[in-house]
Amino acid sequence: MAHPPDPAGGLPLYYIEDDPALAGAVREYLCARGFAVRVLGTAGAARAALLERQPAAVLLDWNLPDGGGDALCRWLRLRWPALPVLILTVRGDAADVVAGLEGGADDYLTKPFLLEVLYSRIRAVLRRAPGGGNGPLFCDGIRLDREKAAVWLDEQPVALTPAEYRLLLLLLQNKGRTLPRARLLEQLWDAQGNFVNDNTLTVTVKRLREKLGSPPCLKTVRSLGYRMEDTL
């Protein structure tokens, strides 16, 4: 499944770079070519943004004020193995290139670089990326693995019914957004095609909360619906 466009328009990219002039030039160039680029100046800001929402690809500087980009790349790879990562750095020695690629980057571009070359490299890694959208989803201590259709809470497995799993999946796929009850009712069908009614939805949410230990990240929006958002 292709990564959805950013609501503001364009395919979302994160650029982790602490040089405002370079970041601004890259952002302006790529935005003019259909991307929605979010610039993040530190590894900490990047981690927070990635846990909130996963982009189509990540552009990553090796040298960051609060840590190396190589460590951030490894952290990212453990969570989203299929997310394309391009390292952009002044470190052009063969050993650095090998370390970057073996550390999980999909491509490696040394500074200074031509913007049109960067654009072509981004398009190339996006073409090679597997269906996207199939990696695990997170919210606080909750992890949902779509390939295994399994859920963990603080690394302990949680047994969910099919209806509970589908509800959690839908909420996590829309993390940070409030989903109205009407939309949930439209999308939660069981395997036999029986519609999930309003009372069943209420009971399913209640049981899901109980199994997940009443997590603060699963919020009720009064008179509207439900929302998942990180609180840690």
What structural keywords apply?
4-stranded antiparallel β-sheet; 232 residues; disordered N terminus; 38% helix; single chain; alpha/beta; 5-stranded parallel β-sheet; 23% strand
Q: How would you classify the quaternary structure?
A: single chain
SSE order, one letter for each helix or strand? EHEHEEEHEHEHEEEEHEHHEE
Low-confidence regions? 1-9
- End-to-end Cα distance: 29 Å
- Output the number of helix runs: 8
Query: Outline, from the CA principal axes?
Result: elongated
Give the topology, please.
Blueprint: E1 11-16, H1 20-31, E2 35-40, H2 43-52, E3 57-61, E4 63-64, E5 67-68, H3 69-79, E6 85-89, H4 94-102, E7 107-110, H5 115-128, E8 137-139, E9 142-145, E10 150-153, E11 156-158, H6 162-173, E12 179-180, H7 181-187, H8 198-211, E13 218-221, E14 225-228
Parallel strand pairs: 1-2, 1-3, 3-6, 6-7
Antiparallel strand pairs: 4-5, 8-9, 9-10, 10-11, 12-14, 13-14
Helix pairs in contact: 6-8
Fold and architecture overview:
Helix 6 packs across helix 8. Strand 4 and strand 5 (67-68) form a beta hairpin. The protein is α/β, with parallel strands linked by helices and 232 residues long. It has 8 helices and 14 strands. The chain has helices at residues 20-31, 43-52, 69-79, 94-102, 115-128, 162-173, 181-187, 198-211, and strands spanning 11-16, 35-40, 57-61, 63-64, 67-68, 85-89, 107-110, 137-139, 142-145, 150-153, 156-158, 179-180, 218-221, 225-228.
In short:
38% of the residues lie in helices and 23% in strands. It is built from 8 helices and 14 strands. The longest helix is centred in the middle third of the chain and has 14 residues, at 115-128.
